[in-house]
Specification:
The complex is a heterodimer of chains A (307) and B (302).
Chain A lengths: L6 H6 L3 H35 L2 E2 L7 E2 L3 H8 L2 H33 L4 H13 L2 H11 L6 H5 L12 H29 L3 H9 L4 H12 L1 H15 L4 H6 L11 H11 L3 H26 L11
Antiparallel strand pairs in A: 1-2
Chain B lengths: L1 H17 L6 H8 L3 H25 L3 H6 L12 H8 L2 H32 L4 H13 L8 H10 L6 H24 L4 H9 L4 H12 L1 H16 L3 H6 L8 H12 L3 H34 L2
Classes of the chains: A mainly alpha (307), B mainly alpha (302).
Chain lengths: 307, 302
C-alpha cells in the first residue's frame, strides 16, 4: 500500500475484472435501495395516486377519480399561491445573484481575510430555519426591535403585519441565510479562471469593468446556472421559514405552494387536493430544473468547485 | 496518509496540466484589486450576517423587564442566566435528547448504507442494475421532501409508527441517501484501481476491501457527509411536525416553536432557547469545519 503500482498495470487491466465480481457487490447496494424505494420512490408514486382520491387523513381512502383535481384547480387559492411562490422565487433570485457574484469575485481576489470571512459566512447555514425565523420575528418587532435599538425610524415598520412588506422580509431572511453560501460557490468558480486571460486582457487595454463582463461573467456561466438552479428549485420548498415567520400572512399574502399544501392537507384534512398541490410542486420543480439546464446548454454535471 | 496525499497529488496534477488553471489567487488578486464595490458588499454583508446573531446572544442574558426598557442593540449591564435556567426547566434537555436520538439514529445507518451502495456503484461499474440504481438516486436529488410528505405520513400511520421518533428517523434516512451516495461514490472513484487489485491478489473479500481499504481512504468524505446530513436532520422541521404529536416527542425545532407560544412576550427566554439549541451545532462546526469544506470540494469537483 505504500508504493504505487506502475501505470502499466492500469492500462492492461481488463474491464471484465469488475464485471465478473459485480454480482457479489450488488448486494451491498440493497439496503440503500430498499430504504430509498420505501420512503422516496413509493411516496413519489403515492402522491400521484392520492391525488385521485378523497381522504381526510384518518379514515378510509376513497378513489374518486378527478374530483380532487377539479376541486383544487377551481380553487382561487391555487393561482394565488403559485403567484406568491414565483414572486418569492424571482425576487430572491434577483436580490441574491448580483450580491453573491460581487462578493464572490471580491473574495476570490481577497486573500488576507478570506478564510475568516468564509468561516463567519458559513454560520447562517448552520442554523435551522425555525431558529432564524424566531430570531427575525423578535428582531423586527416595531416597538422593541432593531429600529428602536439603532434609533433608525425607517426600520420601525410593521414588517410582518403589512401585506406589502412581509414578502420582502421573507426574501431578506432567505438572502441572509443563503447569500454567503452562493458567494462561496462563486468565489470558487472565479478562482478557477486562468490568470493568463486577465493578463492578456490587460495587455489589450481592457479595463476592470470590461474584464468583468468579458471574462469573469462568461467563464462562470455554468456556476451561475448551478447556483440559480439551487436558488430557484430551493425556493419551491420554503416551508419552515414561512410557517414560523408569517404563517402565510398577513391574510394569504405570503402563502406559497408548500404552505398551501400543508394547510389543505394537515389543517383542513383535504389530503386529495393537497396531493394535487404536491404533484404540481414536483412538476414545477422538474420543469424549472430542466429549463435551467437547457439554458446552460450542458448535461447534468455539478459545478460546485472550491466551495 | 502519505500514500493518499501522493496519489491524490498525482491525479490533481494530471488534471491540472490539461486545463491551465491560475497559479493561485495572488496574481488574480493583483488584477482585481481595488474592487471596492465587491469589498463594500462583502464587509457589509458580514455585518448583516452578524447583527441577528449578536442580538440573540445579548438578548438571552437580559431580564424580561430589562428587555422592554433598555436599548435592544446594547448588551445589558447586569447579564443574567435566569433565562437559560427557565429554558432548562421547561424541558429543553429532553427535546435535546430526542434530537440526538433522531440525528444519530438516522445519520449512522444512512451513511453506512450509502457508503456500501457507493462502493458497489464504483466497484460494480458496468452492472446494469447498479447503473439504473445510480440514476435513480440522482433523480432522487430533485425530489423535495415537501412533495412526498402526505404519502410518507400515510406509510408511517400504516406501519403504526405515528408519534414515535422512529417515524422521523426512517424517512430521514431515505432522504439522506442520494447526496451521500453521490459524494461518496465520487470520492471512492478517486481510489486507484491498483489498490483494489492488490487487495484482491491478497485474497481479500469485498467486505474486507470495503472496510480495510476504502473506509480509511474515504474518511474525509464520510465525515463531510455525516456532518452535512446531521445538520439537515437536526434542523429538520417538517417531518417532526407532521409525524409526531405528543409534546414529549418534540425535537429541537419543534420545541422552539412550542417555546415561542409558551413564553409569548418573554423574548429573552426565547432568545436563550435559540442560543442554547444552536450552540452544539456551532461547536460541531468548529471541530469539523476543515473536513466539511475540504470534503465538499472533493466530492463536487468533477
Amino acid at each position: 500500500m505504500t508504493t504505487l503500482a506502475p501505470p502499466a498495470v492500469r492500462a492492461q487491466e481488463p474491464k471484465t475484472a469488475g464485471r465478473g465480481r459485480s454480482g457479489a457487490v450488488v448486494w451491498m447496494a440493497l439496503p440503500a435501495l430498499l430504504m430509498f424505494i420505501a420512503f422516496a420512490i413509493i411516496p413519489l408514486l403515492g402522491v400521484l395516486g392520492l391525488s385521485f382520491t378523497t381522504w381526510d387523513g384518518i379514515g378510509a381512502i376513497h378513489f374518486t377519480g378527478l374530483t380532487s383535481w377539479k376541486a383544487e384547480l377551481e380553487d382561487p387559492e391555487l393561482p394565488h399561491s403559485l403567484w406568491v411562490t414565483f414572486e418569492i422565487m424571482i425576487v430572491s433570485w434577483l436580490v441574491q445573484t448580483p450580491i453573491s457574484i460581487l462578493i464572490g469575485v471580491f473574495l476570490a481576489a481577497f486573500k488576507r481575510y478570506r478564510g475568516l470571512l468564509a468561516v463567519l459566512y458559513f454560520v447562517p447555514l448552520l442554523l435551522s430555519s425555525v431558529a432564524i425565523s424566531i430570531t427575525y420575528k423578535a428582531l423586527l418587532d416595531p416597538n422593541f426591535g432593531l429600529g428602536t435599538g439603532l434609533g433608525i425610524d425607517l426600520l420601525n415598520q410593521d414588517w410582518l403585519g403589512s401585506t406589502k412588506l412581509a414578502l420582502w422580509v421573507l426574501v431578506f431572511v432567505v438572502s441572509w441565510q443563503y447569500v454567503p453560501f452562493h458567494s462561496l460557490i462563486y468565489q470558487g468558480a472565479v478562482r478557477q479562471i486562468p490568470t493568463s486571460l486577465f493578463e492578456a486582457a490587460q495587455i489589450d487595454g481592457a479595463g476592470r469593468m470590461r474584464q468583468f463582463f468579458s471574462i469573469t461573467l462568461p467563464t462562470i456561466r455554468y456556476t451561475i446556472i448551478t447556483s440559480s438552479t439551487l436558488m430557484v428549485v430551493g425556493s419551491l420548498t420554503f416551508f419552515d421559514l414561512i410557517y414560523v415567520l408569517t404563517a402565510g400572512g398577513p391574510g394569504d399574502s405570503t402563502r406559497a405552494l408548500a404552505l398551501e399544501m400543508y394547510r389543505k392537507g394537515f389543517m383542513a384534512d383535504l389530503m386529495g387536493p393537497a396531493s394535487v398541490i404536491a404533484v404540481i410542486l414536483v412538476l414545477v420543480g422538474l420543469l424549472l430544473a430542466q429549463l435551467l439546464r437547457r439554458l446552460g446548454g450542458r448535461g447534468d454535471e455539478s459545478q460546485l468547485e472550491g466551495v | 496518509m502519505a500514500t493518499r496525499a501522493s496519489w491524490k497529488g498525482s491525479e490533481l496534477t494530471a488534471i491540472d496540466t490539461s486545463v491551465p488553471v491560475g497559479k493561485g489567487a495572488t496574481s488574480v488578486g493583483r488584477l482585481l484589486r481595488l474592487n471596492w464595490l465587491g469589498g463594500t458588499f462583502a464587509w457589509l454583508w458580514l455585518v448583516i450576517v452578524m447583527v441577528p446573531i449578536y442580538w440573540i446572544v445579548i438578548t438571552s442574558v437580559k431580564t424580561q423587564s430589562n428587555y422592554f426598557v433598555t436599548n435592544s442593540m446594547l448588551p445589558p449591564k447586569d447579564p443574567t442566566f435566569a433565562n437559560y435556567q427557565l429554558v432548562v426547566q421547561s424541558g429543553i434537555v429532553h427535546y435535546f435528547l430526542n434530537s440526538v436520538v433522531v440525528s444519530v439514529g438516522a445519520v449512522v445507518p444512512a451513511v453506512a448504507i450509502s457508503f456500501m451502495a457507493a462502493y458497489a456503484i464504483v466497484r460494480g461499474a458496468g452492472n446494469r442494475w447498479l447503473r439504473t440504481m445510480n440514476s435513480m438516486f440522482l433523480l432522487g436529488l430533485a425530489i423535495p421532501l415537501q412533495a412526498v410528505i402526505i404519502p410518507v405520513y400515510l406509510i408511517i400511520i400504516r406501519l403504526h409508527l405515528y408519534d414515535t421518533l422512529l417515524a422521523i428517523i426512517l424517512p430521514s434516512i431515505a432522504f439522506a441517501i442520494p447526496l451521500s451516495v453521490l459524494v461518496l461514490s465520487n470520492f471512492i472513484r478517486d481510489v486507484p484501481r491498483e489498490l483494489f487489485e492488490s487487495m484482491r491478489m491478497d485474497g481479500a473479500t469485498e467486505w474486507g476491501t470495503l472496510w480495510r481499504l476504502t473506509f480509511p481512504l474515504t474518511r474525509p468524505a464520510l465525515v463531510t457527509v455525516t456532518i452535512y446530513n446531521a445538520l439537515g436532520i437536526w434542523n429538520g422541521f417538517l417531518l417532526p411536525l407532521v409525524l409526531t404529536q405528543s409534546p414529549d416527542k418534540r425535537t429541537i425545532p419543534l420545541a422552539l416553536v412550542g417555546f415561542q407560544g409558551q413564553f409569548n412576550v418573554n423574548v429573552p427566554a426565547i432568545a436563550a432557547a435559540v442560543t442554547l439549541t444552536t450552540l452544539p451545532i456551532i461547536l460541531l462546526y468548529a471541530i469539523g469545519r476543515r473536513q466539511l469544506l475540504s470534503g465538499l470540494t472533493a466530492g463536487f469537483s468533477r
